[in-house]
Amino acid sequence: MLMGAKPARARVYQMAIENKANPRTLAVAVSILAAATIGYFGGRSAEFWKTSAGGVTTNAKAEGADSSSLVSGQVPAGSVDLSDSQLSSVKVEPVGEREFPIEKQAVGSIDFNEEVTLQVFTPYQGRIIGLFARLGDDVQKGQTLFTIDSPDLLQAESTVIAAAGVLQFTTRHLARLKDLYTTHAVSQKELEQAASEQQTAEGNLRAARDAVRIFGKTDAEIDRIIGERMADPRLVVLSPITGRITARNAAPGLFVQPGNAPAPYSISDLSTMWMVANVAETDSPAVRAGQELKVSAFPNRVFEAKITSVGAMVDPNTRRVSVRSEIEDPQHELRSGMYANFVIRTGDPVRSVAVPLAGVVRESDGTMTVWVTADRRRFTRRAVQIGAERDGYRQILDGLQVGELVATQGAVFLSSALITETR
Length: 423
Fold this sequence. Notes:
Elements: H1 6-18, H2 23-44, E1 50-51, E2 57-59, E3 79-81, E4 91-94, E5 96-112, E6 117-120, E7 126-131, E8 138-139, E9 144-149, H3 151-182, H4 188-214, H5 219-228, E10 234-238, E11 243-248, E12 255-256, E13 265-268, E14 272-280, E15 292-298, E16 301-314, E17 320-328, E18 339-356, E19 361-362, E20 368-373, E21 378-390, E22 393-398, E23 405-409, H6 411-421
Antiparallel strand pairs: 1-2, 2-3, 3-21, 4-23, 5-14, 5-18, 6-13, 7-9, 7-12, 8-11, 9-10, 11-13, 14-17, 15-16, 15-18, 16-17, 18-22, 19-20, 20-21, 20-23, 21-22
């Protein structure tokens, strides 16, 4: 029952009963009752408190929260009083300082290092007759990839067999003429002619052996071909580097030619990878070749890399600059096409006010806030300007001073309590 309004209400009810037949008198009575009620609540409107069932007390008009003291773009400050049972849900720590490096962030994609990626073509045309490596296999330098039936090799081996036969003939002929010359059965001219032919045959055999050697045949294999008088048209294509098969377009029976795309095999050395990223035009002046960066491709791994190339032009559509970096990956953990966040260090670290990530709350309007306390019981919301994030801490550029007490855990609980109790 409203104490101030009770006598007035009683009088109004009595007038209404005694003069119920008089509309004018009844209207006057209603006006008197409304004035009494407004007067009562008007005296109580200077302050508005709500107390929740759990014991959280909030003040929507805490000190510093009136409209004249608000900074443009900041949420109104508010305070929350916690009960003894609720204090265990909030951890309070003094504000300290930490070092934050000067960095730029972007998103890139992993790719093979093109400087150590090779397309393996056959040196001569032919039809593939055997495959010895599959996609994804790790191969060593000099390992057989595939073989082809090469008519060019067959021709070269036939030439070396013929050249060897000619050399044998000219050698025997020269030896016979030497014997005849001692008995004056042949002239010196005939002997010299035979010697010249034998020297020519030796030269032809050497050239023929070199031609076969170009196909990858060893001297032992060439000697065997000559000794057996049997050509082997099987051309063996070897891996030029140690790496992994990243593409295979070869198939048995496929006719291949030198330089005709696609290459039968592609091999990449995966000890280093590339990351290609597009950096915003506004950040490009701070990016230079030689700078180190971190690649967060795995949740618990950080890959060190170094920028090797910065694009010479800005993409007119995206207004971004292409940046390429080289990443050491000895364990072959990165994959081509993988997305990766990277951070470029563009300056020396700076020391700044820092708060644990759990102590910073993003409000519904995007404002970042923290909860400050002086007595570890009443917490006041305060808008802050944030900066970089590092090792679980958020850089605070403005809004906090070193030594102030803030809630480092339970900040979301405090914001929820303020929103709930002030509705």
